[in-house]
Amino acid sequence: QVQLVESGGGLVQAGGSLRLSCAASGSIFSINAMGWYRQAPGKQRELVAFITAGGSTNYASSVKGRFTISRDNAKNTVYLQMNNLKPEDTAVYYCNADIWIATNEYDYWGQGTQVTVSS
Length: 119
Hints:
mainly beta, four-stranded antiparallel sheet, seven-stranded mixed sheet
């Protein structure tokens, strides 16, 4: 069984910073892309950023220049450094990973971590 466990959410004032972490554990052969999504109340879940196994990154335009995604392949962990946070960044943030188990690839999600930015 594979699990993605997120940490690092919380309450912060506008202009502040938070760092999210997501660690994958279980019978993992390898991990392809890893990413972060978010869902604000009444809105659809949206992609925030993703990083490939080789380290290539992609960001939503709304966070480009403020957020940085990185990963530690030895620890099966992905991070999201969020700087200059804005109230509109308030959402539940979900980790996502494409994980190879034996000869099959599966899509896994974390349980979500709340990020609240006060004005």
